[in-house]
Amino acid sequence: MFQLSLVDHIRLSFGSVAASYRAHARAAGRLAARARQTRAMLVTLLGLSACASVVALTGIRPLQIAAAALAGAALVGQAIVHSLDFEARAFAHRACAARLWLLCEKYRALLADVHDGLIDLPETTARRDSLMREVQNVYEHALPADRDAYQIARDALGAGTGTPSDQDIDRLLPASLRQTARVSPT
């Protein structure tokens, strides 16, 4: 039969929150890079358009057509950049990652308190439940509605890469809280 101790449940929850934190931090970085790239592309396009417009004042028909085409491309580029809204999405993922990092620290603190025997079973359960509500709040209110957030949520539910392994969770914890530190070799 399947058995899951309270500490195992807290560790698994911690691992899921930590994996979501890393995924949102990566998404924020990716979107921020895209925002910088699109801004640079748009500034370049606008600069070329301005230069072509100045040169088109000479009255040469092909230069006037090029200036109009560059201005149109700059307008289309601006519309695309505005509709994709990379900066706002990056900010939302960054804010979500920050809140999840705080929750990771709270999970570590709970695991440390349990490990050191500083809290009893009812308090451990209450703190775990409180953390679960905080995680739910982050997922309900802090996530942007984009493809990255959908994929992160899918992975957190086990539809993607699955639940973090004990080794993955142990890498995120100090040596004293690692499961391998508690298991004696046979």
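(the above was protein one; protein two follows)
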Amino acid sequence: MTPINVGVVGAGYWGPNLIRNFRALSQCRLKWICDVSEARLKHMRALYPEVTGETDFQRFLASDGLDAVVIATAVRFHFAMAKASLLAGKHTLIEKPMAASTAECEELVSLAQERGLVLMVGHTFLYSPAVRKIKEIVDRGDIGELRYISARRLNLGLFQKDINVAWDLAPHDLSIIQFVMKERPAAVTCTGSAHVTPGIEDVTSMGIQFPSGRSAIVQSSWLDPRKIREMTIVGSRRMIVYDDIAPLEKIKIFDMRVDRPPHYDTFAEFQYAYHYGDIYIPYIQQEEPLKVECQHFLSCIADGTTPITSGRLGLEVVQILEASSKSLKINGGPVQLAPPVIVGEGGHRALSSAAPVPASSNGAGAKSSAATTANH
């Protein structure tokens, strides 16, 4: 197979991890790095002297032989850069969140479909062996009927200037919830507070309701003294606790449940039955999720297949985030979610006008100081 020529935009916080992984894969050639900061490019060229550095995004995009573009910049640049990449005929991988609005995401998904290009979003946790194991357990029915999911993603900083904590941290949990639930949300509620930067919530609590009656709760904070990455998946027969911080035992299955009596004649006869069983710790083979993600992107390009973390999944996550922002403005009131509109799948809509692509990467290196994905 002919190696795929890849270029990465953004060499700040998360970009170097993508650069390292793509460079190590035999299926591709990492040939270009784009960043507005000459200092970052100089550092990356010292590490990878064979890679060409470029400060101007338009020149980078016009590089001879470029097949695929990986965007690891601040969220405000995602849409303009991704649209320019797709219009230039490049397969595109965008870091999370996919864009700043549902309309932008819809336009990118439509554009990729029209041009037959792979559009993928960097929801890295869906390539984690632990998350894959959780989905396997749930799909087998080992925990019974899935009832609800509770997630906590807390730490002290890093504070963002253009997005709140829900947009920064919750995409990880939302992508996992969507992956496991296999159901589009019906409504979103969200409450929060801005303690440090006026207008930018640093603590949020999001509630998600599904048509089936199932629910999810997502707590996010930049103001917690401990770094917590924990999720609980509750079923009718068993419960799963996923602790991503744990070095080895990331998943524990609790054989616990509450049974409601099937028949009773008086209130005195009504007693819930609590079942307490063993705790199981399944074996999980260790593998870097980001490496698997990068390999998957290349495989989808080579085989013409749809990524696990496709543009559609990225769109659904942004739709939930956008609804959470609306809910915050109405003091936690519920916001209903409508199905996304994709051109070419029945019906048409006026595509949103594109923001101009800056002459240079215009902040592609901003991740070093305010990384959108800083809290992976």
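Reviewer note on protein two: The chain is about 30% helix and 25% strand.
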